Structures are given as C-alpha cells and as structure tokens.
Structure prediction request, 405 residues.
Amino acid sequence: MKRIVIVGASHRCLTMFVRGLKDMRGKTLEFVGIYDPNKTRCKVFRDEVGDSLVIYPDFDTMMKEASPDGVIVASTDNTHARYVIGALDYGVDVYCEKPLTNTYEDCLAIREAEKRSGKTVHVTFNCRFMPYFAKIKELLRSGIIGKVHAVNYEYMLNRWHGGDYMKRWHGMMEVSRGMLLHKSTHHFDVANWLLDDEPVSVSAMGTRSFYGNPERCFGYRCSTCERSAECESYKSQSAPMDKALYFDAEHEDGYIRDRCAHRPESDIYDNMAVTVTYKGGTLLTYTLNLFSMKEGYNLTITGEDGMLICNNFGKGFEDKGEYEIILMTKENEVQRITFPIAEGAHGGGDIKLREMMFGAECDDPLGQSADSFAGVVSAMIGIGANESIKTGKHYDLASAIDTLR
Ligand SMILES: NC(=O)c1ccc[n+]([C@@H]2O[C@H](COP(=O)([O-])OP(=O)(O)OC[C@H]3O[C@@H](n4cnc5c(N)ncnc54)[C@H](O)[C@@H]3O)[C@@H](O)[C@H]2O)c1
Prediction:
C-alpha cells in the first residue's frame, strides 16, 4: 500500500484527492501525513481521513517521520517548487497540482532535482483526460484534417468564476503570476498535447478591463456585504466545506476567502491575448477573459484538409445535452460527432486522472499522463507571455525550453 503525504490543506486537495480517492484509501494507498502552515485546515483533513493522518509541524519532519512513497503538492502555486524539489531530494515521487510552478528559475530547479533524484513528477493536467479533449486528440491523430496550421482558442470565464480568482491569492501577481499561469496552464498544455509539438515563441497583451472598479466594490468581503444581491461575483459562505476550510480557519493566517472581487489590491490581468508559434509551424491564437456573461470556450483547429469546431458553453446556451464536435473536410459539409456528457468534476477529467495516477497500471495510448517537462513547457508559455506583456516584445521560448530538457 502506498503511503501518501499531503502539502497544502487546500479545497482542491480535499475534493480531488482525499475525497476523490476514497475508494482506494486503505486498499492501494493511505494518507499518512499532512503539512500546511494553517493547522485548522489540516484538522478538516484529519476529520475526513481519521487519526491515522498525522498533522506535521513542518515539511522536513513529515518527510523524515512519515517515510512516504508519494507526496501530493496542492498548496498555493508559488510554493509548489519548494516542495516538489524537497520531495525529490528525499527520494520520493511527486503528484503536483498545476501549474507545476510559475517562474523560469523554479522550472529549471525542478528539472534538475528530478534528474538527480531519479524520481518522477506527475502534473495534474486534467483537461487531457476530459473525454471531449480525448476525442479531439483521437481525431487529430487519425490525420482526418491533415497537418494543423492554426489553432484559435478563446476562453471565457463568467463573473462568478472569474471574480472568484480576484478575491484571494490568485488575484495577486506575486503569488499566482496571474491567470496566464494559474488558469491558462491547462489550455497551453492542451494545445501542446493536441499538437504534439513544442512552442517556439510567444507574444502577448494583457489588460485589467473589468475588476478593480471602485464603483462595483460594494464592501470589504462578500459575507458582510450589504449589496451582495447586486453583485455577479458574490460568494456565499454557506457551503460547509468553505466554512470549515476558510471561514473557521482565517484567525490563523488572515486568509480571507471572500474579499470583494473588485478589491483594489488584486493586480492580475483579467483580459489577455496571446500568440504562440510552434516548431511544426502551427500558429496558436489564444484569449482569456474573466468577466463574460457566459462561461465557455470556442476552439477551432484548422488543418490542411479540414477543420474541427469545438464550442462548449454548457447549460442554457445551445444546450444539446451531449458533447458535439463539428468536423468539416469539405466546405459547407458539416459532420457532427456527438457523444454523451461525462460525469464528474472538470468534464469527467478528474476521475480519469485519478485512475491514471493512483489506479492499477494501465496503457496510455493517447499520452494523457503529464510529466514535469509538459509542466514546465506549459508554464513557460505563461511566463513568456507575462514577460512579453511587460516588454512589448516576443519571448524566445525555444531557447528557454532547451535549457529545461
Ligand atoms: N487541476 C485543477 O483543475 C485545479 C483546480 C483547482 C485548483 N488547482 C490547484 O490546486 C492548488 C490549490 O488550490 P486551491 O484553490 O484549492 O487552494 P486553497 O486556497 O484552498 O488552499 C491553498 C492552501 O495552501 C496553503 N499554503 C499557503 N502557503 C503555504 C506554504 N508556504 N506551504 C504549504 N502550504 C501553504 C494555504 O494555507 C492553503 O491551505 C493550486 O495549486 C491550484 O492551482 C488545480
């Protein structure tokens, strides 16, 4: 049975791993330790797992005393590298939440640590496991649209979801490095994986268009806001998990989960446009905004012999009750490829990702498992894009990625 320890008593870790792996607990794996500076949040995990989950005062004590076989790193993004490298140096495999990390220096340090340890880093790119993207991958692999020349990927978050990032650490550039790392790491990885190619150069623009508007900042935090009914980003504190993990734990570290989405302190871009060129010649144009009326994406992949049109806006918007990918190999001839909507979080991706990471060994014909190289390549697109926004110049990804092999 694998002994697993946790770094980061986060909402994600509780739902994705502790609850998500419930059926495997006690059979193929057991959670034996947790470290997070906030002990109130750690206790929520112990209540869930039982007394066998030891709450450790620091990471090194945990690594020495728990003798784990694997470490799940699910803390804030800016802290991943320290624990990934630490775990590797203790000779232990790592399961790291995305983004693997968010600076070039950390990318380099992780790759070097992995080489010297001989252990493995797995990155939780769950989009690869969504049946929808798996189907696109299969179609591209079949060669039905020929060599891909252009990928147009527009991603829209609604004001509840987009606003949610503005309320806490994600909204601080210093911690998350913005959405081109925190969120787009999924999308850049999907593009890299679908194309089976490496990016060469990136240029980007970013603005803060919607959030931070003093006229929309109605109060300090949602839970005490008197104008919550008027706000599209309002977050209720009624969910028991939110109460236990955040509201009851804030006395320890002052982490307030429901600051106003328009608070003046958050400083990340909420409106971004990115262009990436690939070795094979493909051009990716990508946009992300955090303030749309409807959440979803438009993804169009244009090849030499056809195109795939993949629009996903979910309920209330052309709700077809099933997934649909449009394939065109001749002008005005539409083939609709439909298949059932998957159960579970993140479009069914989380279930399959957990099976691949912690289940019985199985084949991976589509190459859905993501290693540290995939993690750093995706992160580098975001890092390069941020740099390009600052300098107004293209960022040379090929040279940076060559140092990370
Ligand atoms: N794969 C996905 O689809 C997905 C979805 C959501 C979140 N995530 C990732 O999961 C991670 C957690 O996100 P969340 O929103 O659930 O976070 P959260 O805000 O619920 O928790 C973050 C935790 O990190 C802890 N922390 C802060 N500094 C730390 C340090 N120095 N050492 C150890 N722990 C520290 C905090 O105390 C807190 O418990 C992030 O990396 C995020 O990007 C991934």
Residues 127-211+266-343+371-402 form a domain with the Dihydrodipicolinate Reductase; domain 2 fold (CATH 3.30.360.10).
